[in-house]
Amino acid sequence: MPGFAERFKVRKPRPILKEEDKKMIHDAALDVMHKVGVRVHAKTALNALKKAGAEVDERDSVVRFPPDLTESLIAKVPSTIVLAGREKEFDLPVDGTHCYFTTDGCGITVWDQKTQTRRLSVLQDIRNTAIIGDYLQYCSIYEPMVVASDIPQKVHVIAGMKEAFEISRKHVESESTSTPEEAKLQIQMASEIVGGIDALRKRHIMSAMVCTMSPLTLDGNATEAAMAWSEAHVPVHITGMAQMGISGPATIAGSLVVNHAETLALACAMQAHSPGSPVIYGSVLSNMDPRTGAFQGGSPEAILLGATSHEMAKFVNMPSACGGMGSSSRVPGVHATLENSLFCMLGSSVAAEICNGLGLVDMSMMLSYEQLMIDNEIVGMTMSCCRDIPVTKETVHLDLIKDVGILGIGQRKGDYLSLKETMIEARQFYQSTLFNAEPFEQWDAKGKKDDMTVAREKADWVLKNHKPVLLDKDILKRLDAIIKNVAKV
Prior knowledge:
Blueprint: H1 19-35, E1 38-40, H2 43-52, E2 55-57, E3 62-64, H3 67-74, E4 81-83, E5 92-94, E6 100-103, E7 109-112, E8 117-120, H4 123-135, E9 141-142, H5 153-167, E10 171-174, H6 180-194, H7 197-202, E11 206-211, E12 217-218, H8 220-231, E13 236-240, E14 243-244, H9 252-273, E15 279-283, E16 286-288, E17 295-296, H10 300-315, E18 320-324, H11 334-349, E19 354-358, E20 360-361, E21 366-367, H12 369-386, H13 393-396, H14 398-404, H15 420-426, H16 440-445, H17 451-465, H18 473-488
Parallel strand pairs: 1-12, 6-19, 7-21, 9-10, 10-11, 11-13, 13-15, 14-16, 15-18, 18-19
Antiparallel strand pairs: 1-3, 2-3, 4-5, 7-8, 16-17, 20-21
Helix pairs in contact: 1-9, 2-9, 4-5, 5-6, 5-18, 6-8, 6-18, 8-9, 9-10, 10-11, 11-12, 12-17
């Protein structure tokens, strides 16, 4: 039986940008980094970059990167990594041949489909979505999906990660870390699970998202957190969020230049501080609504930015985590599903390695259990479309076609249905875990359930019936102790 990672295998990419396009964008970013610079609000990063040979203006914390220095530092980034699961069955080789999908993160509300209203998210929502994420066939990576409003702010990040570690056997990604102290606590937790910091450096059971600030700024706390992650060799998804027309030029190429410069700047800081630490070139780029200035998370421009930023990642030989399914639709449903489907298909066609975003809508601020189930379906169908098509003597079935012949003529009379070969091959057909193709009359007799109701009932079924393999109780006690110690401070 194929391993977990194999279901995310995709065929060779079809590029969007030409090689000369990518080189122009890369050279433009190097020019910006050298002549304009990037403002860095983190002392650890400033000191490491100055020691490496960057030009640091102490007055305004602007770092200017000689192009040769940038090239030499980013060359230290590992070109491939393995994002490990708690169980090896769920290890994910990030090697350019797979397209993985994470849950989305940092939601602050939850949609209630029955009442058509929303409520504040709580810790139980993290636990619930971790259970569902553990169950879903096409959720590759679990990321705590919401902010828990019912616990103290100083522990909500690590409490959410504890729930993720306890329940999910898959790779866990942290998104909402805002300080180096939080990063170190999560490193401590992950080390408890794998057997120490040295083991964690070798087996990456968690990764972390760190956002840049567009244009051309690295936030102090987030960058200090990145430095802490780099020391432990926790892979860092460097995630730019430039918005075309507001924090980046109003062209795809121009915004790619800004994102490339910001990403390479933080990658350089990490390599200057901890050479060889894993970096994932990420981005959740978008454009503004020209009528209002509002964020457009699932627009054609945002989808293209995600796909092409992946291509820029591969141009500099880095693993990629680009774009996402975080629709700007205010509620789950047709709008969100349309945008998420387009991104999923385009991202997979260029072989983007990690795609963010199952389950949140409203600019990634609102969790929808229904959309989470539908997004899993989108990924499953996309993976089926984007796999290699084997063309061999066995799959062409020339002898079989000759034997079956023409409809209504000969011994076989054009009938493939009764053949053993059909029964074997049909097992490979994609089968929905959510919807079915029953006739209208059967659907009508069963109560005419709309798709959102079907999705909600499936989520409820998973929560009732799926029993995840929980983290070892002794390790769990140590994670609880870490949270309790922080809560006391």
